[in-house]
Amino acid sequence: MLDEEYEIRWRSGDDSRVDSLVLEYSVDGGASYPYVITRPSPQDSTYLWTVPDTYSDSCIVRLTVYDRGANSAVDGSDSLFTIIEYIGVGEDPAAPAGVTRELALRVVGPNPFAGRVGLTFSLPYTLSSGAFSLDVFDVAGRHVRNLAAGVCPPAGIAPTVSWNARDERGRQVGSGVYFLFLRVRGESVLSRKLVVLR
Question: Is the pTM of this model over 0.70?
Fold first, then answer.
């Protein structure tokens, strides 16, 4: 989860020949590794990683080890993992036992993204009545698309929606920054930045 810390561990069979290390991660299942996490010392065997805001369900970490002759060996995560964001704004003391007390808006897909991004939200007990809307706006404040609207879901229910980077008329939007706003009873309660890449 975004901003949480995870310990990455590795073991080398022959530390005496290691000259340098590069720890990187991919958000496309290992097709590319555009993000360098760190360049640890050859003596290191762990790194405490703070998860960044590159949302994806196809993340993988790899470690490349180089010797003095520039030969390399590579190893990676045992499986793909997902980076998501969780936003909460405290608790709702009026909520009955077992009912969500948090207000949250989560991105559950890659961000930046090219095709589609998944989103989910939940409302605390005190906001689980009335109307809500989930809308996308561009950086100029123009309305791009309504993703969902209606009566607020009951507390404890977390609807999932997606945006396919198209406007209300079904046209693809251009690359750039967009903003997602969750409104409850006509007031903005949460927002998220989305980045479209073409």
Answer: no
